[in-house]
């Protein structure tokens, strides 16, 4: 299991309705590259980011790191059978940035 340091995205705000900031695990100052993650690593990542309940959907669908990098917005919103609010946050604040980081690190 990987150890992540939780940091809060400074672009997020605490809401009066009780929603919390989205946390992004960071390794050595940048997002980790999930290309070689197994299903358990993906589940651990989402648990560490505050999506404990939704992490089981990645387990149920056997999403490993390579699958995570291939997921589209529609896959996350409809294919995982999780509520829309958390699904949007998972895609926008985690899946998409992980994909972008992976592409950048492999382009060099």
Automatic annotation (TrEMBL):
One of its GO terms (molecular function) is histone binding. Coiled coil: none annotated. One of its GO terms (biological process) is negative regulation of DNA-templated transcription. One of its GO terms (cellular component) is nucleus. This is SAM domain-containing protein. It comes from Zoarces viviparus (Viviparous eelpout). Residues 1-35 are annotated as: Disordered. It comes from the Eukaryota. InterPro entries: PcG_chromatin_remod_factors (IPR050548), SAM (IPR001660), SAM/pointed_sf (IPR013761).
């Amino acid at each position: 299991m990987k150890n992540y340091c939780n940091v809060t995205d400074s672009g997020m705000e605490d809401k009066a309705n009780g929603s919390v900031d989205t946390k992004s695990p960071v390794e050595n100052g940048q997002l980790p590259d999930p290309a070689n993650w197994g299903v358990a690593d993906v589940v651990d990542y989402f648990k560490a980011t505050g999506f404990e309940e939704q992490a089981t959907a990645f387990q149920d669908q056997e999403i490993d790191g390579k699958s995570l990098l291939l997921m589209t917005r529609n896959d996350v919103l409809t294919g995982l059978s999780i509520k829309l609010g958390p699904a949007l946050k998972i895609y926008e604040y985690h899946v998409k940035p992980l994909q972008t980081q992976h592409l950048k690190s492999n382009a060099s």
